[in-house]
Amino acid sequence: MDPEDEFYEFNLKFEGQSNFSIDIDETLTSDEALVNGFAEQVDDIENVKRKLFEQLKTVYKSESEEKECISFSIEFHTEELEGDYLLKMFNVDLETYNKLKSIDFIDYYQLKRFGLIDRDEGPSYIIDFNFNPEYIDELFVVNCDLNLKITSLTNES
Length: 157
Description:
This protein has a 6-stranded mixed β-sheet, covered by helices on one side. The protein is of the alpha+beta class. The chain has helices spanning about 30-45, 45-60, 65-80, 85-90, 95-100, and strands spanning about 5-10, 20-25, 110-120, 120-130, 140-145, 150-155. Helix 2 (about 45-60) crosses helix 3 (about 65-80).
């Protein structure tokens, strides 16, 4: 993707969800069916998150390279941060935190961005998550096809 690419970006607030941005690669805006499909996914964002979290948990249970990416994201936050700071970041009490297994932290990811981008292999979605933007700005980035099948995972700071 060329740094000169244009994006249309919007910040939205949905009931029960913190603010997140959506963006659409300008080169894709002329494809009405594609943009409408993206709009439908945005309208159903809680179901989109549920599908992605289910896939992430399946990957986490595997011995794949992608598991290492998820593990790094969780371990970075749970091992580098301490005490009240950690409890506030996850918005839980100590008893709840102590009961959590590593895989449970996937459910605590908060949506930051949902985008429709043009890649060499065609249009795809990019979804940025983090645990709590008030406390840390590390992103966990999920790339997936238009059917919401995860194609790659990365961590960004």
